[in-house]
Amino acid sequence: MAKEKIATRNPWSFIPTLYFAEGTPYILINAVSVLLYKKMGVDNATIAAWTSLLYLPWVIKMFWGPVVDTNSTKRNWIIFTQLAMTFCLAAVALSLHFSIFFYLSLAAFFIGAFVSATHDIAADGFYLLALDKDNQAGFVGIRSTFYRLSMIFGQGFLVWLAGMILSNTADPTNQNNVVFSWTISFSIAAGIYILLFVYHRFMLPYPEIDKPAPKTKSAFTDVFVTYFKQEKIGIILAFIFLYRFGEAFLIKIAPLFLVDKPEVGGLGLLLEQVGIVYGTIGVGSLLAGGIVGGLIIKKYGLKKCLWPMALIIQLPMMVYVTLTFVRPDGYLAAPFVAFEQFSYGFGFTAYMVYLMYLANKSQYKTAHYAISTGLMAAGMMLPGFIAGVLQQALGYQMFFITTILLGIPGIVTLFFIPLEEDEKK
Fold first, then answer.
1. What is the CATH number of the domain that holds 146?
2. Is there a single domain that holds both residue 265 and residue 198?
3. Vertex 17: Cα angle to 13 and 23 (nearest 5)
4. pLDDT band at 138 (very low <50, low <70, confident <90, very high)
5. Are 49 and 106 in contact (CB under 8 A)?
6. CA dist 93 to 42, 204, 314, 377, Å?
7. How many domains does the chain have?
8. Worst-scoring range by mean pLDDT, 134-148, 179-193, 401-415?
9. What is the pLDDT of residues 359-374, one digit of tens each?
């Protein structure tokens, strides 16, 4: 007799692990890869350009969202992509032992990025199918928290672990020791992911409404037509691309600056120090900034908060300019990074709430929000292609000063964007 499939479970039994699984590959592919390549001796321009390309699947995932919707169940997609991600992470660990490690690891990261973006689509859809409306609202904070914890695991613990292993070798500058340290970290990541796969294989419920959607073309086309026919769509697109323009240049270079040698303008932090300062304290501050920003908008409304938050999101660039002068040693950089990440998290909240405001005006709320976030990812990807070249041409100090100037166009768009109502939700 076939075992009966369980249609519902307590959300606590799978939501935290599901969103930990969603966040882990994203941070490994888009952030930890930067530090990995830096320690493996790759130059800044190459790192920034190629790791920026890894954003692409999150930019275009809206286009294959309907494939996930109309083929198989969200549960099956989650299980399949988690198994596939295990192999991608293991492939990264293995690739480091070859002379052409850069190309092999980049291929593994790129495949993993498509797998991860597909997992995002399935997991977010499954969230809506497996939870009733009350639990959907109640677990928003839980899913966000465990997503952020996955960032601390990846950018904090795994980076710290690689650094500690490297520091305890006879020669931390030896390439074989560098390879060994990162192999251990990515092998642990693959091991964690296979455990998540096994756990979810048995613990994810089988919602009765988790079925393939009917295949239609008209709705898909109408989603894009209505999005790009919005009032003032030109200025809306300018806002989406330019609000974080300076930050988009900064984000690829900041971790490289922290670990680079003092003689070339970097701070010279050890890898384990970066794991604590940037990957743990920094991510915690980012989360705190987002929470405080959300509470402020809830109290005062988006219209009153947008301008102050748009100015505050420019502070991270100023912090890094300050770091090039002050040059704190080791963990003394932590207060600067904490302030920088808190400011970014705080200012970023207004940006996301405005995208929600735009989506709520549409009949295709979810789809329009997905398009906006895809364009947002493109706005972070494209500057990264030239960020490394610009940094190498200008040096760290002038590069960070330039990012301040690059943040000005985003502020200018605030004079023109449509915001007729004071959205507090």
1. 1.20.1250.20
2. no
3. 155
4. confident
5. no
6. 17, 29, 36, 27
7. 2
8. 134-148
9. 878 777 767 888 888 8
Q: Are 225 and 90 in contact (CB under 8 A)?
A: no
Cα–Cα distance for residue pair 54/423, rounded to 1 Å: 34
The answer to whether 242 and 313 are in contact (CB under 8 A) is no
Is 133 found in the same domain as 67?
A: yes
**Do 292 and 176 lie in a common domain?**
no
Residue-range definition of the domain harbouring residue 348: 250-425
Kindly state the tokens that stand for 412.
Answer: 């200018």
Length reported for the chain: 425
**Token pair belonging to 156:** 């904090």
Query: Which are the contacts of 337, defined by CB distance < 8 A and separation ≥ 6?
Result: 277, 278, 281, 282, 285, 319
Residues 289 and 142 in one domain: no
Angle at 14 between CA 294 and CA 159, to 5 degrees: 70
For residue 213, which phi and psi values (nearest 5 degrees)? -80, 155
pLDDT band at 139; cut points 50, 70, 90: confident
Q: Taking Cα atoms as reference points, which of 247, 347, 244, 253 lies closest to residue 294?
A: 347
- Dist CA 392 CA 407 (whole Å): 20
pLDDT at 406 over 70: yes
One-letter amino acid of 45 = A
Q: Please give the Cα distance from 142 to 70 (Å, whole number).
A: 28
Residue that finishes a domain, picked among 209, 224, 239: 209
Interior angle at CA 331, CA 325 and CA 332, nearest 5 = 40
Q: Which residue has the tokens 């008209």?
A: 218
Average pLDDT of the chain, as a whole number: 89
The rounded distance, in Å, linking the Cα atoms of 183 and 350 is: 39
| Structure token digits, residue 154 | 């990846």
